[in-house]
Amino acid sequence: MAEKYIMIHDILSEHRDRMINIKKYYPFFVLSETTFTQYKDGRYSNLDMGYITMATLRFLIHENSFQEREVTYEEYEDFLLELLHREFLVNEGPAEEHELCGYIFDKIKNDGKAFTFNYFDPEEKKKKTARVKLIDSRIVHGIVLYHVTTDGIEFYLDTKEIKDESNISVQQVLLEKMIRSENFAGGIEVVKRINNEVSKLSLQKKEVLDLLSYDIMAGAKASEEYMATVAKWFREESKLFEKNRALIDKAFAKANEQGMNTESGENAVLSKIHKLDTELKKTIIRHGELIRETIELQNVADEMIGRAKLRKLRPVFDFRNALEGAMKRDRIDDLSFLIAPMLMPRLNKTFNAECIDRMLEGKSDNGDYGEKVEKKVLDPDFVYEDAIEDKRISKNYGVLYGELLEQLWKHGKTTLSELIAIYEIKFGKDIYNNGDLYSFFVHLAQKDSYDLSKMSTKQDTFLEGIIMEQLSAQKKDRFGELAFNITFDESKVLTFGPNDEYSITDMNFVMVS
Q1: Which residues share a beta bridge with 121?
Q2: Residues 135, 223: one domain?
Q3: Which residues contact residue 157 at a Cβ distance below 8 angstroms, ignoring those fewer than 6 apart?
Q4: pLDDT per residue as tens digits for the range 20-59
Q5: Cα 245 off chain centre by
Q6: pLDDT (tens digit, 9 = 90+) per residue, 214-241?
Q7: CATH at 214
Q8: How many domains does the chain have?
Q9: Is the pTM of this model over 0.70?
Q10: Residue 42 falls inside a structural domain
Q11: Are residues 129 and 1 in the same domain?
Q12: What residue ranges in 319-445 does DSSP mark as E strands?
């Protein structure tokens, strides 16, 4: 009875999670059943919507995540037309092909609506509806931009259509989507999948070592392929890890600002964020261990390949084995390669006596000259070029940030347009040709608020560390408690410079009392 009770409890409690997990597959099967028999009297009945859907998801994943940009419909249409021409030999007029692409895209994005998946919830005893989208859109400056959703990435990931060396990178992209959507529980599962991929690479390393032990040629090839795989994902992973760690730090800060540690439900959110951060740290450690193991594999492989080369070059020839091999192949003429060198004419080597006279008449230099060693003295005042650049950047950032604090102290608020005008008055129009101005705005926009009292004890960003070093003691005393918030006005784009060739989104700075 106890086992039956456990079974029934599992059915009831796990059913909802299973249905939610299944829902990401539902749009694909709905789309794969879409036929073109009713469209244009069946002229395009050979098109496969399932293949087109998978290709579309891969295209959007590449553009959104690896290229870090959203796509317009025109860019997607160019990709789709190339696919239709290449795979299905579609060759119609421009207007006809444009209409066909619009029809396909409307089907994939379901006319902008979510696909609905109905299921029965046995715990609540009622029907429920799960909604899922593969593609979503947003409007920026009047232009519609499209991107793949978290469900779309996870579905594509589960189908295992990506290359092995890209598995971890795509998992990292999915993790970024999870964190941005504040689905921290799903992010923990993604990190566990990343750990599984790392474990697979560790097992693959052992297989390569085993192969090297009995087949040096195949093992050398497998070792090169393994090294290339690890090198490729490591280049991609380093940037993605840094980005996801930064997102987790922002999630911590946001949770603390909103007071999520005061209520029991919100305390669970902080717990999930902390657990996700812990899992990601473990993953980074495992990646470091894998890199060390890979270096060890390279050393072991080089040593084994070197020993194999020496064995092949040893000066030993087995005439008995050569004879047996020729008899097995029924090619006794192969022995001619062994006999022919012995039948060559004998060459007698002589020494010309005149060489002795030249040797005796030659002058020898008996001087013993040592090598002149010049002792180089290091210049203690030498400064590297990158240190000079860092010093200049830090100084410029400190001046620009100090002017911003001055305006907030006087007026309580300011805008980016007002701030740029003040910079132009104080430093001249040459300020627009200084790249530090634009990089300063990029670093400044990383956070929505700044508090000098907190910055004095802990600096969260590269910019904050520079500011606390550059601000004078007088300014720290004056602005020590100043705090301000930053908001972005995307509807207003500033143009400035001698010929209005520079543009940037406007920003509002408001001092917090």
Answers
A1: 126
A2: no
A3: 170, 171, 174
A4: 778 888 888 888 888 788 888 888 888 999 999 999 998 9
A5: 13
A6: 777 777 777 777 777 777 666 666 666 6
A7: 1.20.58
A8: 3
A9: no
A10: yes
A11: yes
A12: 413-415
